[in-house]
Each structure stands twice: as C-alpha cells, then as structure tokens.
UniProtKB/TrEMBL annotation:
<feature type="transmembrane region" description="Helical">
    <location>
        <begin position="105"/>
        <end position="125"/>
    </location>
</feature>
<dbReference type="Pfam" id="PF00892">
    <property type="entry name" value="EamA"/>
</dbReference>
<dbReference type="InterPro" id="IPR051258">
    <property type="entry name" value="Diverse_Substrate_Transporter"/>
</dbReference>
<keyword id="KW-1133">Transmembrane helix</keyword>
<comment type="similarity">
    <text>Belongs to the EamA transporter family.</text>
</comment>
<protein>
    <submittedName>
        <fullName>DMT family transporter</fullName>
    </submittedName>
</protein>
<feature type="transmembrane region" description="Helical">
    <location>
        <begin position="21"/>
        <end position="40"/>
    </location>
</feature>
<feature type="transmembrane region" description="Helical">
    <location>
        <begin position="79"/>
        <end position="99"/>
    </location>
</feature>
<keyword id="KW-1003">Cell membrane</keyword>
<feature type="domain" description="EamA">
    <location>
        <begin position="21"/>
        <end position="148"/>
    </location>
</feature>
<feature type="transmembrane region" description="Helical">
    <location>
        <begin position="46"/>
        <end position="67"/>
    </location>
</feature>
<keyword id="KW-0472">Membrane</keyword>
<keyword id="KW-0812">Transmembrane</keyword>
<dbReference type="InterPro" id="IPR037185">
    <property type="entry name" value="EmrE-like"/>
</dbReference>
<feature type="transmembrane region" description="Helical">
    <location>
        <begin position="132"/>
        <end position="155"/>
    </location>
</feature>
<feature type="transmembrane region" description="Helical">
    <location>
        <begin position="228"/>
        <end position="248"/>
    </location>
</feature>
<dbReference type="InterPro" id="IPR000620">
    <property type="entry name" value="EamA_dom"/>
</dbReference>
Length: 306
C-alpha cells in the first residue's frame, strides 16, 4: 500500500474534497447497509438474500474484467477462491448477526476489525504492538461491553456474538490476503470477482440444501418494492459502487486517507440505526459507542505510526 501512496501525487487541498466526497459516501452507504440488510432479511431468508445480492452484481464485474480474469494464473485462481470461502463466512456471520441485533450494535462491533487485525498480525509476526495501540484496543473492548449492555448487564445477544465472530473472520481474511503469495500480484478487480464468485457458489450450495430456509427464487417472488429497493441498495451501492470508488480513489489520493474516511463507517451505522430504526442504546450504550469510535480511531493512528 505504501508503494502506491508514494507514487500517487496528493490532490491540491482545495480539490481534495472532490476525491474525499465519494469515499465518504461509501462509508455512509456501508454504515446504512446493516439497517438495509436487517430490513429485508429474516432468519429463514439469509442465504437466499445473499445469493440474490451478489448474483446481481457478479455479471457486471465479470464483464468489466473479463480479459484480466483470463490472465490469472492457476495459483491466483486457487488463492482467490480460498479467500472467497472466507468471504462467504464473513457475509453469513454478518447477515445472521444483524438479524439478531440492532443495526447500531452491528456496525460498531464489526469496527473492532481495525483493532483485531493489527493484534493478529503482531501475533503472527511475533512483533509486540505499541503500548498506545494496546491501550486503544482495551478502550474499544470496554466500549463494546458497555454498548451491548446498554439496557443492563446481561449476556450479549446471539447477534452481538455473531458480529464479533464476523470481525474475527474479517481479520482472518485480511491476514490471508497478505500471506497468500499468489494473490499479491493479482489485479484487484479480478481478485474481487473471483472471491465474490466463490462466495456466491457457497451460498448457492447452501440454498440447495434442505433446512437452510427459503429458496432465492421464492424470496425474489415474495419481495415487494421496499425489499427490492433494499436489495438494489446492497448490491449496487454497497458492493458495486463501493468497489469502483475505492479503486478510483486510491489512484488519486493516499491509501491512508481512503482508509481514514472509510473508518467512519461505524459512526454512520450508529447514526442510521438511531435516526431511522429507533435504536436506543441508553446512556451506558451511548458512552460505549463513543469509546468504540474513539478506540478504533486511536488504534488506527497508533498502528499507522508504528
């Protein structure tokens, strides 16, 4: 990432917002995605909705990157397919999780990925993280405890635990991408397409098994205008638009700046849940949300300075 940043001239300050605004919009739609997924998904339709969500955008990605897909080596295909299996697990955990918890909790708990990833990397490389980062991690964990106990100290909900597992899976995905040598030189569009294709294949197999809920066809037929609007939002804006904006922005500004703007996702998730879904974390929960946001922001800066 640093080599990209070094080779890309930073935009003039007065025009930086032209690049920042689309990236910030990606963070906003990602933050709103938890509420959108919650609005169109039930326990019995998770797999079907995931099939529909990614089947809508996958043909577009294949058409856009067909030549580069054909140029991938066998090792790159295998590496990307392996990452796709992890990605499938992430989306299953996230979607089942958001069904069983609030959109606010989902967005804030998943933000722990920014803390878990450097900790896991430090464990793998046996390099102790900076003390400031450990303090930020402790602050974030304390915030999550307060957030999930906003109504009184009880056992975390099943959704909260699933979102925490999703954050762990996201961490595993990042580490796998950095350690599978074959995918390091792969084109980013092709890598994303193969990963999504692998994830869709997993969802399709699960949808065909008995006991995994309604079929994608039955769910599609049963959708009304509101549900289709939610699905299009998740497919077009949260997946297709987000991916292409990231590719566009990283060539016009620094990856660190893009990461900083995308790091505001949990803030938008909380704002969307409170404003539109009527989430009421309570005073303890709100204080916990503030600690999560502060801890992840502090941890991200500490990791970048290490």
């Amino acid at each position: 990432m640093s080599s990209i940043a070094a080779s890309v001239p930073l935009p003039a300050p007065r025009r930086a917002w032209l690049t920042d605004l689309p990236v910030l919009l990606v963070a906003v739609v990602w933050g709103a995605s938890y509420l959108a997924a919650k609005g169109i998904t039930t326990t019995h339709t998770v797999v079907a909705v995931l099939v529909l969500r990614f089947a809508v955008v996958l043909p577009v990605l294949v058409a856009a990157g067909w030549r580069r897909l054909r140029a991938l080596s066998a090792a790159q295909w295998r590496g990307a397919a392996a990452l796709g299996l992890i990605l499938a697990g992430i989306f299953l955990l996230e979607t089942y999780g958001v069904v069983h918890t609030s959109a606010t909790n989902a967005g804030l708990i998943i933000s722990l990925t920014m803390i878990l990833t450097p900790l896991a990397e430090a464990a793998v490389t046996r390099t102790p993280p900076p003390r400031a980062f450990l303090a930020a991690a402790a602050l974030s964990v304390a915030g999550v405890v307060m957030l999930t106990q906003g109504g009184g100290f009880t056992a975390p909900s099943a959704g909260d635990l699933l979102m925490l597992l999703a954050a762990v899976a996201r961490t595993a995905h990042v580490l796998a991408m950095s350690r599978i040598k074959a995918v390091r030189s792969a084109d980013s569009l092709s890598l994303t397409t193969v990963q999504l294709g692998g994830a869709v294949a997993v969802f399709a197999v699960l949808a065909a098994l008995p006991g995994t809920g309604a079929s994608p066809w039955a769910v599609a037929v049963g959708f009304g205008p509101r549900e289709w609007a939610g699905l299009v939002f998740l497919s077009v804006f949260c997946t297709l638009f987000a991916f292409f904006v990231q590719m566009w922005a990283v060539r016009r500004t620094s990856p660190s700046r893009v990461s900083l703007l995308l790091g505001t996702e949990p803030l938008w998730a909380a704002a969307t849940g409170i404003a539109l879904a009527g989430d009421r974390p309570g005073p303890i929960g709100l204080a916990g949300a503030a600690l999560v946001l502060a801890g992840t922001a502090w941890g991200r800066r500490a990791a970048e300075m290490a």
